[in-house]
Design goal:
mainly beta, 7-stranded mixed beta sheet, about 55% strand, globular
Length: about 120
């Protein structure tokens, strides 16, 4: 069974930084496209970033472009989201996913909470 576990969330001040991790187990994450999403209460789920299987290509939502960086270490079966210059609108539950290049299906983790507050 595919398993994804997010970690690294917590409380951070506006303008601060946080790094989220997404640890994969029971499968080889290097064969999958990686993505991050976030969702705040009462709002639609929002795409944040995606990364190709090798890490050679990335894409970001306009709302985070220039402030967030997605990366992966396939040897460790782990993906990361470095979040800099955090704003109040960054408060959300953050989720990672794995998507096979051969299918549209995405596997989801349980999420990690990020709260941006002074």
């Amino acid at each position: 069974q595919v398993q994804l576990v997010e970690s690294g969330g917590g409380l951070v001040q506006p303008g601060g930084s946080l790094r989220l991790s997404c640890a994969a187990s029971r499968f080889t994450f290097g064969f999958y496209i990686g993505k991050w999403y976030r969702q705040s209460p009462g709002k639609e789920r929002e795409f944040v970033a995606t990364i190709s299987t090798t890490g050679g290509s990335t894409n970001y939502a306009n709302s985070v472009k220039g402030r967030f960086t997605i990366s992966r270490d396939n040897a460790k079966n782990t993906m990361y989201l470095q979040m800099n210059s955090l704003r109040h609108d960054g408060t959300a539950m953050y989720y990672c996913t794995a998507q096979g290049t051969w299918t549209a299906q995405e596997y989801w983790g349980q999420g990690t909470q990020v709260t941006v507050s002074s």
